[in-house]
Amino acid sequence: MATLKFQVKLPTGEVEHLSMEAGRVLIGSGAHCEIRLPVDQARVEHVLIEVGPAGLFVRALSFEPPPTVNQIAFQQAPLTPGARLGVGACEIYVELVTGGVSAAPVKKRQASPVAWLLMAIIVPAGFYTLLVEDAVEARAPMPREIPELWLPPVGSCAYAGGQALAFAHEKMAVADAKRERRPFYVRDGIQAVPIYEAASVCFRAGGDKPSGDLAEESAKFLRRDIADDFRTRRVRLDHALIVDDDLSAQKEARVLLQFTEGKSGDYVAWLTALDRQLKIKLGATKS
């Protein structure tokens, strides 16, 4: 696998040097991104760098702000050596390092008793690796029924008057805090939705309709945004499995497990089994 060397210059002037073996690298402010940028400079997922037969290609995933290559905005573009990738006020340079190390010729010699002992240990391990790969290849298909992330919105407030307003203000503050942490913690964003909805009905029960409308709109926006992200992640996982990109499949499966934390059913069980199989397979590949 190719090695990618990154030089990331942050708006503060600090320069970070990173190196990783990967066929694709996600850049953004999200906690799951391989290259993480400040929240005020990039969206959760801003650009994707992929290694192709002709070199590096970069694809824009967000245009707030538009990413650039050599100060020119793009949707998809080749990333030539020395090109400057810009995301907000961050500057990123990428170097692709390829090449393999040839094995030196080994002189034949008679196997010692120690070598036979090592073979007795290694050969069964090799059979185990083959069995693991066969088990992973026979993985079950993705279930069609997907769990709902939320229950229906609450319809009434348990309080009235001043108590309802006090409760609503408290819930609104909690929901706002969880919403701010959403780029880093998936569950916080999901939990913020019903809290906004509870705040909305209690604001209205206390006579503050404008604040109730604001809380309701915040809940609706998060519902749409998170549902779109949830759907995109499922599509990415499906694609990664089709093209046998196990590393990407494992990453997407683990993010989806965060979405479905606390849920049950065939889909969650399938995700859990898939994550376990990929962990075994990728571990066997490295060993």
Task: Summarize this structure as a short list of keywords or feature phrases.
Tumour Suppressor Smad4; 5-stranded mixed sheet; 11 strands; 2 domains; 6 helices; single chain; globular; 6-stranded antiparallel sheet; 47% helix; 287 residues; alpha+beta
Number of strands: 11
Helix content: 40-55%
Number of domains: 2
Strand line-up in the sheet with most strands: 2-1-11-10-7-8
SS field, number of helical segments = 6
Label the overall shape: globular
Backbone CA Rg? 25 Å
Coarse structural class: alpha+beta
Largest pleated sheet = 6 strands, antiparallel
User: Residue ranges: pLDDT <50 for 5 or more in a row?
Assistant: 100-111, 113-138
Brief overview:
The chain is globular. It has helices at residues 113-137, 161-181, 186-205, 209-242, 246-259, 266-286; strands at residues 3-9, 15-21, 24-28, 35-36, 47-52, 55-60, 68-69, 72-73, 76-78, 85-87, 90-97. The protein has a six-stranded antiparallel sheet, with no helix packed on it. A five-stranded mixed sheet has the order 4-3-5-6-9, with no helix packed on it.
